[in-house]
Specification:
By secondary structure, this protein is mostly helical. Helix 1 crosses helix 5, helix 4 packs antiparallel against helix 5 and helix 4 crosses helix 6. The protein has one domain. It contains 8 helices and no strands.
Length: 199
């Protein structure tokens, strides 16, 4: 039951993350996500069978942690209002939504006394959203952090960006298996800062 509950929180948190990308793109002039019916919190519109079910199950069974993804909400960068920060704004909307969820529920834990069951539920919501925000802010394509990084790059560094995007998934896998173990403890520290509790 605990695993099913955590999967449900992970899926809804990822869905909110992806929908936030779509709304940011819509605000900046691109309606691709709206036309494809992706500006909805209905999980069935966003689930990726591998990333939303199989991978989280395997990661939980093998390592005791949840990792997964949903189908990316589509957007056309050429439709966004001109500006070097347009793609970065769309990319940043996803992690910002997870940070906002973590802060809202973390504040709830600080203000209202909770019974053990509610404390456990809210704590998982906060922690999973911290993990999602941290992971997606890593500057590795196709993660959101790469778009923030590329916005800083000069326009003449397109070749450098193309190289990173070509080998992005390899870099992501390397990061997950060899680097994430050093980043994940940061999530526990942030959790304590937000909630005043130990995870």
């Amino acid at each position: 039951m605990e695993f099913i509950f955590q999967i449900a929180i992970l899926i809804m948190s990822i869905v909110i993350h992806e929908v936030s990308h779509g709304y940011a793109a819509s605000y900046l002039g691109d309606q691709t996500a709206r036309w494809e019916g992706r500006l909805t919190l209905n999980p069935l519109k966003h689930l990726d069978p591998v990333g939303s079910v199989i991978v989280p199950t395997i990661s939980y069974m093998m390592g005791g942690f949840l990792f997964g993804w949903a189908k990316p909400v589509p957007y056309n960068p050429h439709n966004l209002r001109p500006g070097r920060w347009s793609e970065a704004i769309v990319a940043g909307a996803g992690p910002l939504s997870n940070i906002s969820i973590a802060l809202i529920f973390g504040l709830f834990l600080r203000i209202y006394p909770a019974n053990p069951a509610l404390l456990s539920i809210v704590s998982v919501i906060v922690f999973i959203n911290i993990l999602l925000a941290l992971f997606n802010l890593m500057p590795i394509p196709p993660l959101d952090g790469s778009k923030l990084l590329f916005a800083i790059f000069p326009a003449n560094m397109g070749t450098f960006r193309a190289f990173f995007e070509r080998y992005g998934m390899i870099l992501v896998l390397f990061f997950i298996f060899f680097v994430w173990q050093f980043i994940a403890p940061v999530a526990s520290h942030i959790f304590r800062l937000i909630t005043g509790l130990d995870i």
